[in-house]
Design goal:
single chain, 280 residues, mainly beta, five-stranded mixed barrel, 2 helices, globular
Amino acid sequence: MPGPRKVVPGQAQRIRASTFNTMIDAAQDWKNRAFGSGGAIPIEQAARHGVIIVRNDSGGDLDVFSIVGVNTLLTAPANGEDHRSYIFSAVTPSAGYEQKFAILQEPIVSGNCGKAMIVGVTPALISRPVGDSSQTAGMLAGQTHLQTGLSGSQILWEDLSVSPTATPHLALVSIPTGGTSTPQTVIVAVVATTDIALTGTISIDGFTAPNGSLVLAPSQTTHGGAAARGVYKVNTSGAWSKWNPFQPLNVIVSAGATLNQTQWFLQAANAYQPVAGVYG
């Protein structure tokens, strides 16, 4: 069966609306494929759109708007190859990726490639600890959504109808926002000035921190010793997870009967001290 024939200049043509629309759809499909998950993006196009191609090396499937750490470069251009595609390895966020993360623009199955944004405005999932009113959000080690009170992105809009706000919910953010030349600030629910168990539901300073909120534990002795001192994410049904952010770290307490609105500073590894004149 003969294939379609091209027309010559000046030849009259009558094209049905359905045929014309099919051509438009085909052109749009080609455009989508050229900038889609099936292939990599030339570096100059990635820079223009703020999007890179990443391979999901987290060990599990990832949903759209998940946060990933941008790890090693998997494909690099050879000398003189200006249009060679770049693909990066994307991993589960951990300490060290606070200023090197991306937000997925589509779901990516483990081991597959897809689009992720590193610069621009994008929807994202964020959580907001109790009492936090900051307008920035950043990466928290082990989490695949952003947490308010950290540097990394500016919050342009947030769905505050979700309750509690510590539950991951939709927001619109602009990334990135600045660097780490000044002390990074994190807002915690409460601070425990005595040794605590670091598990389950605990009342601290007259306040019970909800699941997913942050707690500063600077006074650990029996439960883990000095090495266990730090900021923790509350798990009301099990062991809390320690967060190891960049140093220095400025900590502001948002709740509690006596220590709310106090400020603490990380002077050295695992050594948190209250700002002079605030407490103690």
